[in-house]
Amino acid sequence: MFENLSDKLDRAFKALKGQGSITEINVAETMKEIRKALLDADVNYKTAKTFTDDVRTKAMGENVLTSISPGQLLTKLMNDELTALMGGTTAELELKASPTIILIAGLNGAGKTTFTGKLANYLKTQKGKKPLLVAGDIYRPAAITQLQVLGEQIGVPVYANLESKDPIAIAREGLALAKQNGNNVVIIDTAGRLAIDEAMMVEIEQVKAAVNPHEILFVVDSMTGQDAVNTAKVFNDRLDFTGVVLTKLDGDTRGGAALSIKSVVNKPIKFIGTGEKMEALDVFHPDRMASRILGMGDVVSLVERAQQQFDEKEAAELQRKIRKNKFDFNDFYSQIQQIKKMGNMKDLMGMIPGVGKMMKDVEVSDDSFKGIEAIINSMTPKEKENPDLINPSRRNRIAKGSGTDLQEVNRLMKQFDDMRKVMKQMSNPAAMANMMRRMPKM
User: Fold this and answer.
1) Is residue 247 part of a domain?
2) 110 by DSSP, 3-state: which?
3) Using N-to-C axis directions, what is the helix angle for 45-61 and 70-85, rounded to 10°?
4) pTM check: above 0.70
5) Are residues 73 and 148 in the same domain?
6) 39 is in which domain, residue-wise?
7) Is 307 inside a domain boundary?
8) What is the mean pLDDT for each group of 10 consecutive residues in the chain (442 residues)?
9) Which of 188, 212, 355, 393 supports an S-S bond with 134, CB 3.0-4.6 Å?
10) 333: Cβ–Cβ under 8 A, 6 or more apart, which residues?
11) d(C-alpha 298, C-alpha 143), whole Å
């Protein structure tokens, strides 16, 4: 996500490194490189020009503190301006009404149906809502089946009428069923349509008029870049949607849609899709995204994802076991499963300040844990509970059973042993204080 743009912005800032002060010349050179980087990322030309002009004006108008280098100052200004460009503040869903009606719109292939499932899962697990999905795409083969499969997967009911060819009637029927069954959110999936298809555009306008939705979310494939922004503008003129959803941000996207869409249609980005799993949906935070684009990570989002996956009781029990040095391979395996639920591994690493740049040329597979899982699954229950039992002969057996070699098993055992030592130290306040005292000398 934004990897190429981050690299180019980083190179642009290097022109200011080592400079003693900000001047018109070095700022102009840097802004030229930044504008070029934005255009290469498929950002709207007018947006890119206005953005760099604003940053230049603010940079030249700043009273530079002697302790701040020009590079640091420009990074801060860029962070502030990128945040403002993408909306400034987080735009929450309007969920006060019961039932809240959410209409999903967009082009063919943008990922509407998958997003519909993800949104229902988010509202159910994170907001405590009781959603109903309405299968309103009567044109795409298997669209209804896809939504039903997703609904079953996340435990959310789906209303579908296989006999009807009238999406307006289906939307009304779904809403009536939600009121009858006490569902407090209704999410209506609709068919993908092109802006030039007048009949289809009229149809979705009629669906909107029939159910009077509280939210209309326009789903955009972020990999289409500037085309996505132009399409959003046309749809907004017809539907006056309330927010944008950017999908496929985990793909090879240049980021132009995320940076341009707010300034072009003046509607906030509300969600971003970052993978295929039902949990791979994030509320869009402009300030956090700006930090990630500038290579400064996003620790807040990382912590939030962890909090969503880690059970409070489990965490307390784990803490007790760590204090008693009883952390075992069952606990380790459980932690791996929770980390995997948090999302794409490279994306998670990119949230840690500084790590994103280090990992830019490294391929991190989501199967990274497979070898470790195979080794743990080849242990007996007693070995998992008592790692100290695993002697050389047991290690040989585990290696054969897991399809790995002895070196891999030995490496895991050493890493596990080192991790337990660190955990034991961290659970001891005196040892932790001593470590903190030694830190400045290290």
Assistant:
1) yes
2) coil
3) 140
4) no
5) no
6) 3-85
7) no
8) 66 61 71 82 81 80 50 74 84 87 88 92 92 91 90 93 89 93 93 80 90 92 74 86 84 65 85 83 84 62 58 65 74 78 63 52 63 91 90 92 90 85 64 49 43
9) 188
10) 373, 376, 384
11) 35
